[in-house]
Specification:
single chain, alpha+beta, 4 helices, 11 strands
């Protein structure tokens, strides 16, 4: 019995040492991953990286992590015209993350995430002179200057819905409640008040999946498979 107790004590101590080493290793790995992401994406602040699951060391040896969670306060993407759009409070949950190319590249089997875009950034990405603001419910208020026959330049506005098109474009559609012009001429300003723009620069494999107008900004959802994170992005 004494020998058995000694064996149990030894096993408990060894497990404790392994657990401590495992937690130290995951802490170091999270810090290195955060620094790599900060440099790769040009972030002003280091993002938060959390490697889930225990033990970490066996996952590392197997070259695959069960789950990795990332949070960045600001993630920059762009439009084809070069306008910067900031994804605020970007959070992503990556599952089945394979470590490749000497651990310099990570590929997630699938990932989901959320972020917020300010109305100021949305307005900057739209055609010159067109602005958006919260319109109540799930709508946005769109305003712009339209050049109409005989009447000349007219300030018009209306409410529209936000939609995701093709996984990388945000469009405004279903304009209603047009003001600033005679109702009979409302159709002439539809194209002005229903623009769309494309976003590029999301991590490879991620696409926009949904978008919702909220009082503080536009909430977007992202998802994808084969999502790539590496230092060359």
């Amino acid at each position: 019995m004494r020998a058995l107790r000694r064996l149990i004590i030894v096993l408990v101590v060894l497990f404790g040492l392994f657990a401590a080493a495992d937690r130290i290793a995951v802490y170091v790995a999270e810090g290195q991953a955060a620094s790599a992401l900060q440099n790769a994406r040009g972030l002003s602040q280091k993002p938060s990286v959390s490697i889930e699951g225990f033990p970490f060391l066996t996952q590392l040896l197997g070259g695959s992590l069960d789950e990795v969670k990332i949070h960045a306060n600001e993630l920059a993407v762009t439009t084809p015209s070069g306008t910067d759009v900031t994804l605020q409070n970007f959070s992503a949950d990556l599952k089945g993350v394979r470590l490749e190319s000497g651990f310099s590249k990570a590929v997630a089997d699938n990932a989901t995430g959320t972020a917020t875009i300010s109305y100021a950034d949305i307005s900057a990405a739209l055609p010159k002179g067109v602005t958006v603001a919260y319109g109540g419910g799930d709508k946005v208020k769109v305003s712009g200057s339209a050049s109409l026959p005989v009447l000349g330049e007219q300030q018009v506005s209306g409410t529209a819905s936000l939609n995701v098109v093709g996984g990388d474009r945000i469009s405004l559609s279903g304009i209603s409640g047009v003001t600033g012009v005679d109702p009979a001429l409302a159709g002439l300003v539809t194209s002005l008040l229903e623009p769309q723009f494309q976003l590029s620069g999301l991590p490879t494999g991620l696409q926009l999946t949904q978008i919702t107008a909220e009082p503080t900004g536009v909430s977007v959802g992202v998802a994808g498979t084969g999502v790539v994170l590496n230092s060359s992005q």
